[in-house]
Amino acid sequence: MKFLSPTHAGSIGQILRRCDLRLTVILAALVLLFAAQAVAQSEATIVGTVTDPSGAAVANASITITNLDTGLSRTMNTTGDGQYVVPDLRIGRYTVRAAAAGFKTTEQQNITLQVGDRARVDLKLAVGSAQEQVTVEAAAIAVQADSGEISSVISGQQLTQLSTNGRSMYSLISLTPGASSGQGDFQIPTPVGGDANVSFNGMRESHNLYLLDGSESSDRGGAGGSDVMPSMDAIAEFRQMTSNYSAEYGLSSAATMTAVIKSGTKQYHASAWEFLRNDALDARNYFNPAPNKVAELRFHTFGFNVGGPVDFWAKEHKTFFFYNMEWRRLIQGQTL
């Protein structure tokens, strides 16, 4: 039997540790790459045309789009016919600025992008010095002509105010025209055990598609629900697309439900909550009169959110974080 000397054994150990470290770095890079590609599908796009006072296109105008929540900016130039397209924008509030030689800088403020939006922001430049600026603080409500999809959006603020059954994401999918709900009267906030029995426009429930941050989360081997049940307080927006949506969502013949998780901003924020249901707060069942015992019910949903910049020491933040944790405890008795 042969034995390795301590020197050789130490060398082999160092090599193995280096290989493990390299493998870990490579896997982490691949995860981040695929995550970045998946998120792009659930985000928004801004399109538009830049013109001069006569209506002629302004080519090679500089377009700067700034996220007001994070302070991050993206810059591009218009094409020869004055058009620009900026995809893969995170939902939130934006400012669009256009600048070109011989024209005043024009800025459109307070543009709100929702999940899956394709917003048009056309800018008309006035003749003048580049040091002068024209600011448009509010845009007129325009008919959506860049997409023919039929959909509805539930914002993050609405999510926190809605009285949803069981604090389940499945309670949101029936809140749109064309939905036919066969759900029961009690929801459990779990992906597989929850009740996703909702059909759209006469199609089967199993033909619905669920997306979370652009990645498919449908339970293909089960009853057509979602593989993931995020906390309601972690969802930034929720959109139900029921008809004529883009080909990028073509994995389903029924409705497509896409949710976006909240993200950190340039300011630190934290919140906590608890929602409870108790049989002491419920009315007695008509068919279970006193003095019969009432079925025990203890349903607690509690958790917290925290988010903000990672590089807190920098004046212009580049990296942000968001963390959510939620606990769900249920005791549900029955009467005989």
**Mean pLDDT reading:** 81
The percent range for strand residues is: 35-45%
The low-confidence runs, each spanning 5 or more residues with pLDDT under 50, are 31-41
Relevant CATH superfamily of the largest domain: TonB-dependent receptor, plug domain
Helix content: 10-25%
Reported CATH architecture of the largest domain: Beta Complex
CA gyration radius, whole angstroms: 26 Å
Whole-number tally of structural domains: 3
Through-space gap between termini: 72 Å
The ordered H/E elements are HEEEEEEEEEEHEEEEEEEEE
Instruction: Write down the CATH class of the largest domain.
Output: Mainly Beta
Number of helical stretches of at least 4 residues? 2
**Count of DSSP E strands?**
19
CATH T-level fold name of the largest domain: Ferric Hydroxamate Uptake Protein, Chain A, domain 1
Major sheet details: 5 strands, mixed
Structural class category: mainly beta
Shape: elongated
Strand neighbour order, sheet with most strands: 3-2-5-6-9
Short description:
The protein has helices at residues 6-40, 156-161, and strands spanning 44-51, 62-67, 73-77, 83-89, 92-99, 105-113, 118-120, 123-124, 133-136, 150-155, 179-181, 198-200, 209-212, 215-216, 235-243, 256-261, 269-278, 297-309, 320-332. It is mainly beta.
Please characterize this protein's 3D structure:
The chain has helices at 6-40, 156-161, and strands at 44-51, 62-67, 73-77, 83-89, 92-99, 105-113, 118-120, 123-124, 133-136, 150-155, 179-181, 198-200, 209-212, 215-216, 235-243, 256-261, 269-278, 297-309, 320-332. The radius of gyration is 26 Å and the shape is elongated. It is mainly beta and 336 residues long. Strand 2 and strand 3 form a beta hairpin. It folds into three domains: 44-136, Sandwich (Immunoglobulin-like); 150-261, TonB-dependent receptor, plug domain (Ferric Hydroxamate Uptake Protein, Chain A, domain 1); 269-332, no CATH class. 26% of the residues are buried. The strands form five sheets. It has a five-stranded mixed sheet, with no helix packed on it. A five-stranded mixed sheet has the order 10-15-16-13-14. Strands 1, 4, 7 and 8 form a four-stranded mixed sheet that branches. Helix content is 12%, strand content 36%.
